[in-house]
Amino acid sequence: MTMPVMEPNLDAGVLAAWAQAIDEGPFSSLCWGERIAFENPETLTLLGALAAWTDRARLVTTVIVPQLHDPVMLAKALATGDMLCGGRLVVGIGIGGRHEDYQAVGADVATQTMRGMAERVAIMKRVWAGEKITESVLPVGPSPVQPGGPPLLIGSIGPKTIRSASAWADGLAGTTLDLDARKQNELFDVGRAAWAEANKPEPHLTTSFWFALGSGSEARDQVHRHLRRYMNWIPAEYVDAMAPATGFAGSEEELLAVLRSFEAIGTDEIQLIPTSSDLDQLRRAADVAAAL
Description:
The chain has eleven helices and eight strands. It is of the alpha/beta class. The protein has a single domain, classed as Alpha-Beta Barrel (TIM Barrel). The mean pLDDT is 97. GO terms for molecular function: alkanesulfonate monooxygenase activity. This is Luciferase.
């Protein structure tokens, strides 16, 4: 389950309530995403709070963009988060889709490439391995609880990105707009083949989608409102055109059928993305997940 970090009017009470409810189960992971030029909480600060608010669920960034951060400081912050949560951290990373986030922090848009990300990942892995990357007296710490650092998932919806990340990633943090399990499995097959070519264990396969539970029109309107807000860098007419077929809107029984269709293709984890901060949506989704 993803935290409602892209919803308006959040405060510590709402975030803590969601985190604690997710941690109570039956969800395997608690996820949250990163944006800069938006009203969402800052990703790494929230990681510290989530580590304190939870005890069981894995904590998964979906996704953080290394090019928006100094890689040494990012490695230190993530290692600290891994320490605080007792080794429950999983780091989904991607290149990001918005130039405005790069510009907001003074990052070079020319680094918005797989190569730019891989270069930063290499530095982060050196930090997590305890290497000294300057002539400092001591290496940059603390050491992450998980040897070599937290697992890395590549945020991608394209074969080229998946293949290029197979050398250093541990799995995929994908997304599906149209809930087409067959198309998702084609990308999973790309990942399985790329990891096999790299002589690595099979990748951890995840995908995600927006959801709203309720009557057909009410739930679909909820998804539409969320997309209008979240996709504010895209002209509204394009968002309006895609909204009727994007994400899930419907009943618990219908959501369960969708989840089972992805389970059938070997999906290790589906990360649900709420389109409301209403805790009732979380509770209803928990009932569905418990039925799997």
